[in-house]
């Protein structure tokens, strides 16, 4: 696999998110987010940690930008922490917050790396959660106001914007299963949070278009390749439900301006949506975007029948479809237990393209967690991660070859970081972080990436240069 196997102009980047890397959660006027509050709840995070200090990126930003540039990336996708801009989710933008992201974007541009900013990667200001969070329609207007201020003040240095990251996670992990912040168990009402998130996207999009007409704006969905465990009618219905809740419930409103009726029925939410999700909302949610971001990690194989250990676990993230099991196929999995299935990436790209033919698509996240070991020489050999990335970059090539409008691919993640409910116990980076010293070390997978980006031998040459 060589870079030249991909079309000219194909964007190769890497991604992170604010709460996962920044730390400095109480500095320069940053307010609390739902993740600050949630991480303090005993038992919420597997290793009992929080996003403080994470990778201390807030203080080490120049070093991290140099690393991104040295690795050879074209683009860097980061997220803006809403509570750094508006401590309580309202009012004028905090100059110190704006200044941090301005310095980040400028440093990237100086090094020839294009900044891609996500406006909402899960860190809702806690003050807004106390007013009902995403279950309240008002959250969507608050988000649009925040988006307008950010793009107004940073539009001269950032052109590529992503409104939301993975609204499925924000709504169903945040408000149904409660394994993510804000940790609520509201069952099928979580679908209302999803509508308000999507409305936030629509209103935000409108606000960004008004403040920065030349911006390129999209949104990012997490999509899964879904298939039934057998050809039985019951298993096929299970696959319809999971594809419905994970994929179609977000793709359809954004790309077609409708909610899938079968999914509203599964959720028992048809009447709430009829009343509270008028066609005007859907018109905004489906207003033209410049690209769709897709985060792809894995395939789901599903069967009818509840999980046998469901009694002890958290409530289902699929309200109304509790009677579905996720089946292990025996295919290799990453340390997250996520099945490795590169062809599934092509499936989800095709699914999106069928709804909006020709709309530019970007894989805005793809990557793998493995239990890395630092060897005696200080090296991190991670051949499984390299293989994962390589096979998925190859899937990008197949997608392009088959005519899909895939325009870029971002690796999750630049460096090991706070992996939400897993804390620091799961490492996704192509750069290793020693949390005691904050030392960054490029893993072998990172060197593979540099060789892909710049050609064979580039990683070694770059390392030698750095050592003088
Ligand atoms: C995605 C998130 C990202 C990261 C990866 C592993 O769902 O967007 O922040 O945690 O999973």
TrEMBL record:
PROSITE patterns in UniProt: GLYCOSYL_HYDROL_F1_1 (PS00572)
InterPro entries: GH (IPR017853), Glyco_hydro_1 (IPR001360), Glyco_hydro_1_AS (IPR018120), Glyco_hydro_1_beta-glucosidase (IPR017736)
GO biological process: cellulose catabolic process
Residues of the active site: 166 (proton donor), 365 (nucleophile)
EC number in record: 3.2.1.21
Keyword Transferase carried by entry: no
Keyword Hydrolase found: yes
GO annotations of cellular component type: cytosol
Reactions that this protein is recorded to catalyse: Hydrolysis of terminal, non-reducing beta-D-glucosyl residues with release of beta-D-glucose
An example Gene Ontology molecular-function term: beta-glucosidase activity
Transmembrane parts of this sequence: none
Highest taxon, organism lineage: Bacteria
Pfam families (alphabetical): Glyco_hydro_1
Binding positions (substrate): 20, 121, 165, 297, 412, 419-420
Main EC class the enzyme belongs to: hydrolase
Keywords: Carbohydrate metabolism, Cellulose degradation, Glycosidase, Hydrolase, Polysaccharide degradation
Similarity annotation: Belongs to the glycosyl hydrolase 1 family.
Protein name, entry field: Beta-glucosidase
